[in-house]
Amino acid sequence: MSRIHDALKRAQQDRSIYEGIGLQDVEAPAAIPATGPIPVTPAADTARSHAMLPVSPPSDSIAVDTLLARCPSTTWAPDTETMLFFGAEEQAHGTEQFRTLRSQLYQLRERQSLRKILIASSVPREGRSFVAANLAQVMARQPGCRVLLIDADLRSPRLHLALGTSPSSGLSEYLLGETEEFGIIQRGQMENLFFVASGRPVTGQTEIVSNGRLKFLLDRLEPLFDWIIVDSPAAIPVSDAGLIANFCDGVLMVVRSNSTPFDIVRKARQKFNDELVLGVVLNGIPVEIDPQTQHYFSGSVPASGPKAARE
Ligand SMILES: Nc1ncnc2c1ncn2[C@@H]1O[C@H](COP(=O)(O)OP(=O)(O)OP(=O)(O)O)[C@@H](O)[C@H]1O
Ligand SMILES: [Mg+2]
Q1: Taking the mean position of all CA atoms in its chain, how far away is CA 204?
Q2: pTM for the predicted model, two decimal places
Q3: Can you tell me which atom of ligand 1 is nearest the CA of 20?
Q4: How far is CA 185 from CA 48, 67, 129, 157, 195, in A?
Q5: Which of 32, 127, 150, 186 lies in the 20 to 30 Å Cα band around 230?
Q6: Measuring CA to CA, which residue among 2, 36, 231 is closest to residue 121?
């Protein structure tokens, strides 16, 4: 029985409802206690300082200038309940967990090419959009780190609501060939954070996301951004996420710890190529009402590399 299996089993058994997140790397011990904090490990601290290092400049500076000049500037009205890094409070509940998640992704990036990350989950309402939005924000908080957040959930788009902006023009218009890329990339008031909304409602979503234009878009925009975070529909009911994953470098599986049945998670995981699955973000894990648990950390990036991590 694999360690990810153990981790997910324990997550399913966990019935507390207090909200929190934790990245369960697939090799890491699935040590999410029902009570009490897990201390932040030295490895996590090291990774955090690493994450703050300046990122290398994109190779194509002309294209970056073009990006900055041509993207429509919009004023977002973020929902600060869910967009944790738009609020005034630096240490708002949940922000530390996203910093830890960021550190873990930087650690993974030392071992593999990692820039385009799909946020997936088994079933609706597990928190994919919440994780995608906050991961994009915490990445963009690093000086000089340019981040693109894409709402590729054409079925139940939500990111434009969380950001407080218009859904159009967005991804669906681009995929239908109605507009070019710079017309759909929004710039708001958070420096370094760029956003592609879902676009207008369409039918035939699976065919549209797999018509080749999404891959083209991601390949074209990749040199301009340090991270591209892609939200997606739930993986069990429809095949969109499994298709989009093939255009990305890795998949983070969001699991709602107090609700998603283990067998459903396992079935969803099988929708993704083994090489792509980076780990599991447990959303809604219990956290004691204790200031120490604000620094909750679980899991570590495997020393033996991502292949072993997926066993
Ligand atoms: N850890 C959390 N703490 C607080 N609120 C959360 C958390 N995770 C999710 N939520 C809230 O739960 C609701 C569902 O989350 P979200 O929309 O991110 O899920 P989803 O998986 O993207 O759902 P859908 O299938 O509808 O796209 C949202 O209102 C979101 O703000
Ligand atoms: Mg969503």
Answers
A1: 25
A2: 0.81
A3: 1
A4: 29, 8, 18, 16, 6
A5: 32
A6: 231
